[in-house]
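sorry for the late reply, my laptop died twice this morning and i had to redo everyting from scratch. anyway the thing you sent over, i finally got around to it. pasting the sequence first so we're on the same page, its 507 residues, then the predicted structure underneath. double check i copied it right bc i was rushing
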Amino acid sequence: MAKAIMVQGTMSNAGKSLLAAGLCRIFKQDGYRVAPFKSQNMALNSFITKEGLEMGRAQVMQAEAAGIEPSVLMNPILLKPTNDVGSQVIVNGEVLGTMSARDYFAYKKKLVPDIMKAFDVLAAENDIIVIEGAGSPAEINLKKEDIVNMGMAKMAKAPVLLVGDIDRGGVFAQLYGTVELLEEDERKRIKGLIINKFRGDKTILDPGVEMLESKCRIPVVGVAPYLNIQVEDEDSLTERFDRPQEVGMIDMAVIRVPRISNFTDFNPLESIPGVSLRYAQHPSDLKNPDVIFLPGTKNTMDDLKWLRESGMEALILKAAASGTLIFGVCGGYQMLGETLSDPHGVEAGGSMRGMGLLPMDTVFAEKKTRTQVTGRFLSLEGDYAPLKDVEFTGYEIHMGESTWKEGASASTFTKDTVTGNEKREGTFYHNICGTYVHGIFDKEEVALGLVKAVGDKKGIDVSEMEGVDFAAFKETQYDILAAELRKHLDMKKIYEILDEGIEEEKA
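ok and here's the structure:
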């Protein structure tokens, strides 16, 4: 049976996911079979496994760091917010239904058997399980029947490392306050404190660290630096959205719709020298990019309404009319069509007109499409010609089906790796292109094909602009992450905590 260690945070975005990934990599490097686990994840960034099941991307990233295939066992419950008060509930990779926050709170205890079944299977197959919590264990309004923080730690018999974010200030209050708000038995589970995202001379912190250890009676096992590691973010709390709006030789803008999902689709483009990838939330942010991306969204109709009301749609239509390349993925692709209909109330219900840039109609279905695909771009004419026959891999995850109208051409040819079914997919029309395939830019050839398309259109030489093999690039990032954490975490102490935690439970 595997040993377990859990990473909890004082708040959302304290750096739990990245630290858990780093520990996964370190344990792997040290020769252990290791797997990540998060009982319940709330995120709009999701992934489809080779079996066609849905899970959170954070655990996919951690599985990559651990050097293993992602599995829904690592994330048995995924909550995908549909609005401010409700979420789609996904259990073991399958949609259970949509629930209000109140209804789910009352229901969640029934999912404990699913959680423990998944955990026990992983524990039987591995030496170490690195568990990630969610939010904060001190959210006292949510502590009753908790299944993701201290409740999970108890079920897994796992010692806890508590992480605080110094970059946002007040880290000593974060850590001390969290510890004080816990019950006595919960406090005893915290075996180490970590100060995360530190910039500067660590010795400046020493007096505060000593006082914190004295007050909490828990050792500080590391002060981790602020790391500029290029790996996938947990969710919409990503710092990517707030980066300086610098414009490169080739300028690409992603429209930051309110319910943006799977924005990780565009991460590979960030690694190409000379390419700027910006996230535009307001009309004033858009400026004059060479490419405008419409990303995935958990609520296509509501986000299209937002585009319309904010004035962003008018700017996109103006850019499209002037020849700017427009590329939509999943929900963003659906928006580009002529109509969207929701007869089953999957989203907002009813119907609405689309942006009218692609000759197609979309109808939302009750059943979700979930599959991995391989494929290639078809013979795209004009602006997108450099993408002709370029191969890609990715996955589909959507509730709608789009049908072509006169004048439409398919943009891609795909093969479903789960069923083996083949089909023409996506839509292409002049300078507008769309697809349901997430991860379509992960292969270097696709990203560079799009760059060449822009270069040809602008009349500039992009032959010296080099892309990266994104999978290989991520491997280097996980190694850098592990190396940095080894410098700043007391791994000897963490290994002791791992062993002693298990021994304490057996005693």
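The first strand starts at residue 3 and ends at 9.
thats about all i looked at so far, will dig more tmrw
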